[in-house]
Amino acid sequence: MTMTSTDSVRQDTGIAARITERARDYLNLDSLLSAEELALRDRVREFVQRRIVPNIAQWYEDAVFPREITTEMGDLGLLGMHLKGYGCGGRSAVEYGLAAMELEAGDSGLRTFVSVQGSLAMSAIYKHGSEEQKQQWLPGMATGRLIGCFGLSEPTAGSDPGGMTTYARRDGSDWVLTGAKRWIGLASIADVAVIWAQTDGGIRGFVVPTPTPGFTATPIGPKLSMRASIQCDIALDDVRVPADAVLPNVVGLKGPFACLNEARYGIIWGAMGAARDSYETALRYSLQRLQFDQPLAAYQLTQRKLVDMVLEIQKGALVALHTGRLKDAGTLSPQQISFGKLNNVREAIAICREARTILGGNGITLDYSPLRHANNLESVRTYEGTDEVHTLIMGQAITGLPAFRQR
């Protein structure tokens, strides 16, 4: 029987599917997860394959955030899924992490939406808000019918939020906010903004409905990263809100930092999703692409690249899982979150870039995901604490000496 080139491609495609399934979990880490955790993971994975994967290249190319997907994520219970009550899922930290991993295997921008909505905006209201604020906003945000944003960073205050210049002054019983925020996810489509501002009594958070006069959100573009997501500049021009707009239960930077740690935790998992998808894409391609009459996967250099990817993905997944178990046990420290965020994002970028090399010239097109993931991860590497910031957090934890400011 003579095998045609078409038969060869079909055979290689079958091998690719089989090996990819086996190679996805080299150490059988799934055995460390409960049946409930696996079931949730699989539901999110199916959603990503059905709704995100077929569309993400076009969304990325057109720089469009698919607003219609927000309610679908709400229906899946992904928004504020780690919060209890108010229509939220009450899921464990590990379950939230598994969802983040699957979402970012689709695209960082779509995982970022869940993070901004749930870990930042909803968490701020949940952790620091009044009962009235929680009842007013959280149920609608949990469904995705109301969108929130989180205004902390500023044009001149990113890694040092204590240097913010946005100011809230009292005027009778009201508060009046003046200033600017930058790189604020979802702000132009948000219904409500949590804005952090200096006051005479310290940094406070304010719940600001975005139709309030003086509030303006302008999308930032063009971008080379996170194109299927929205980041904005916010201008606050004497934005007047009532006394009950202030988050009553926190003063100081510990307020926003508590929310940032929730978002950083999700990134530990999410980055490994992008890395895994890039590796699997490169593996499938290398098994099907013939060069010098044999698959790329048959060459030693290609196998070394794939092995290096598997090593770091499995180690990163173990870091994420252990971090999640610590979080569920109530023993996780912010310094341990920095370990995971620094390591997993840094390794994920390297994996995505290496995966692109296996794809050759085809890898620079949107037909394949690794370079899109790598570009997105440049943003993930920067937000919720840069590599440098997390290095210094870890350095202080190790030495006991803070190095953030030179004295």
Could you explain the architecture of this structure?
It is a single chain. The protein is an alpha+beta fold and 407 residues long. It folds into 3 domains: 25-143, Acyl-CoA dehydrogenase/oxidase, N-terminal domain (Butyryl-Coa Dehydrogenase, subunit A, domain 1, Orthogonal Bundle); 148-245, Butyryl-CoA Dehydrogenase, subunit A, domain 2 (Beta Barrel), CATH 2.40.110.10; 254-399, Butyryl-CoA Dehydrogenase, subunit A, domain 3 (Up-down Bundle). The chain is 53% helix and 14% strand. It contains 12 helices and 11 strands. The strands form 4 sheets. A 4-stranded antiparallel β-sheet has the order 4-5-9-8, with helices on one face. It has a 3-stranded mixed β-sheet with strand order 3-6-7. Strands 1-2 form a two-stranded antiparallel ribbon. The N and C termini lie far apart (79 Å).
Topology:
Blueprint: H1 5-23, H2 35-52, H3 56-62, H4 69-75, E1 84-85, E2 88-89, H5 93-106, H6 108-128, H7 131-143, E3 148-151, E4 167-171, E5 174-185, E6 192-197, E7 204-209, E8 215-219, E9 231-241, H8 254-288, E10 290-291, E11 294-295, H9 300-329, H10 334-359, H11 370-382, H12 387-399
Parallel strand pairs: 3-6
Antiparallel strand pairs: 1-2, 4-5, 5-9, 6-7, 8-9, 10-11
Helix pairs in contact: 1-8, 2-5, 5-6, 5-8, 6-7, 6-8, 8-9, 8-10, 8-11, 9-10, 10-11, 10-12
Task: Describe, in short, the structure shown.
This protein is α+β, with helices and mostly antiparallel strands.
Overall outline: globular
- Percent helix range: 40-55%
Mean pLDDT: 93
Q: What is the CATH topology classification name of the largest domain?
A: Butyryl-CoA Dehydrogenase, subunit A, domain 3
Q: Are there runs of 5+ residues with pLDDT below 50, and where?
A: 1-11
What's the end-to-end separation, in Å? 79 Å
Question: Strand share of the residues?
Answer: 5-15%
Q: Total strand count, please?
A: 11
